Amino acid sequence: MSKADLSRLPAVDKTLKELEDIDLPRPIVLSVIRKSIEDLRDDPENIPDFNDYIAELRNGLNSLSRTRIASAINGTGVLIHTNMGRSPLPDSVADRLCSIATNYNNLELDLNTGERGGRAAYLEKCLALLSGAESATAVNNCASALVIILRHFVRGNKKRVIISRSQLVEIGGGFRIPDILLASGATLHEIGTTNKTTISDYENAVSDDTALILKVHQSNFYMGGFIENAETEELAQLAKNKGVPFCEDLGSGAAVNTEEFGPVDHEPTPSEILAKGVDLICYSGDKLLGGPQAGIIAGNSELVRGIKKEPFFRALRCDKLILSMLEEVTELYLKENTSVPILDMLSMTNEQLNSRAELIIKKLEGLPLNACAGKGESRIGGGTMPKSSIPSVTIDLKPENISISKLAEKLRCNTNPVMGYTADGAYKIDLRTVFPRQDEDLAEAIRKSVS
User: Is 285:320 a contact under the CB 8 Å cutoff?
Assistant: First the structure.
């Protein structure tokens, strides 16, 4: 590069001063500036005008800023939206989190004796009662729960895990049950066919090297037509007769009868499944339970105790924040207080949603867009109850001066990000998944996006 070319490179200090209003830590802004200057040094013929250079950097830094975790308005109608953090927490859980996070606590301190205490002892008692189990514990997610269960039973000559071909599922992010089995040291023993797996298939598969019979709840898809699957009670009896442990991965783990809260299918509860004779179950804390990310293991006390003694268990255990939030959520259910956001959303009537839609639409009058109430279908999401949809109310937006895709982009990039979906020539925002306290912010975001 010639000296003339070199002189055209932006100065770091001057560039930094132009971008001092960017709400990012100075070292991050500085690293982006230096990287961009290095790129220009390698391509001197494309050094832009300084103002254009600043505008490009500003856009890049703003894009980077939007990758930080931030609260958002979920207008997609998907209640357990994995990309948007799954189930929101009850207010009391958030309050408990703040209290524990900003103070010291008795995580492993017995306040009765002043000595070191057991970690999560109270929570485990609550989880056992909620799950209808002899004993229970929690790890950092449901995949971890399945991994530690498999690692506990797969040892020595007993490496085969029996599972129906119809349950070799893949859920979000490429997470596949067969991969988890293999990563845990298990030998996968597939039985039956895609559409039919009978109790005889299981019985014929059990051998001296069988470590576990595993059943995986088909939570993110459903099967119909010419199908047959062995019932849980049959499998439990077979496992007992053969002296083989039987575990069921429930996935979403509803703690209540879901059909009592909205027009949705019944989701099996942990207590229902354990009452059928299953030795162990695992389920998620941040789906239908409405708590933080966690994997709950419940069932036979001897088996749970053995899992907790696994050296690998320490690597998967929950921290003080997750444990305290789980405590608060389980206490709500044990007190028969179901004021959990996910259940509130399920039970909200369309009359309530229509009333909110009318108020929001009134606030949008005079703007260059057509806004009206529309019909939508909310879904549970999170790989839960795929057949269930809930009639809902949407706000349908048709901007006059910009495209629908541009409106969607502006709403996403708003100070209060808004996510909806495009259908029937409009941008639709499903109010079932928008908190009433967010209605004013939603109206303001729409105003900014079209003004």
Answer: no
**Rounded distance between C-alpha atoms, residue 17 and residue 11, angstroms:** 10
**Alpha-carbon gap, residue 451 to 407, rounded angstroms:** 11
φ/ψ (deg, to 5) at 52:
-65, -40
Q: Is the pLDDT of residue 19 over 80?
A: yes
What pTM did the predictor assign? 0.92
pLDDT in tens, 366-385: 999 999 999 999 999 887 87
Between the alpha carbon of residue 113 and those of residues 72, 105, 176, the distances in Å are 45, 15, 46
> Burial code of 322-360, b = ≥16 C-beta within 10 A, e = fewer?
bbbbbbbbbbbbeeeebebbbbbbbebebeebeebbeeb
Fold of 91-339: Aspartate Aminotransferase; domain 2 (3.40.640)
Q: 112: Cβ–Cβ under 8 A, 6 or more apart, which residues?
A: none
Q: What is the pLDDT of residue 2?
A: 52
Asked if 37 and 11 count as a contact pair (C-beta separation under 8 A), the reply is no
What are the residue boundaries of the structural domains of the chain, listed by start?
36-64, 73-85+343-450, 91-339
Cα–Cα distance for residue pair 450/410, rounded to 1 Å: 8
Specify the fold of 73-85+343-450: Aspartate Aminotransferase, domain 1 (3.90.1150)
Alpha carbon distances (Å) from 130 to 192, 299, 341: 34, 11, 19
Distance between CA atoms of 301 and 304, rounded to whole angstroms? 5
The dihedral region occupied by 96, where left means phi > 0, alpha psi between -120 and 50, and beta the remainder, is alpha
Q: Are 393 and 357 in contact (CB under 8 A)?
A: yes
Which two structure tokens, joined as six digits, stand for 107? 């995580």
Contact 189, 168 (CB under 8 A): no
The winner for highest mean pLDDT among 227-236, 355-364, 375-384 is 355-364
* pLDDT tens column, 301-330: 999 999 999 999 999 999 999 999 999 999
Among 252, 253, 235, 234, which residue's Cα sits nearest to residue 244?
235
Distance between CA atoms of 178 and 216, rounded to whole angstroms? 11
| pLDDT tens-place string over residues 183-212 | 888 899 999 988 899 999 999 999 999 999
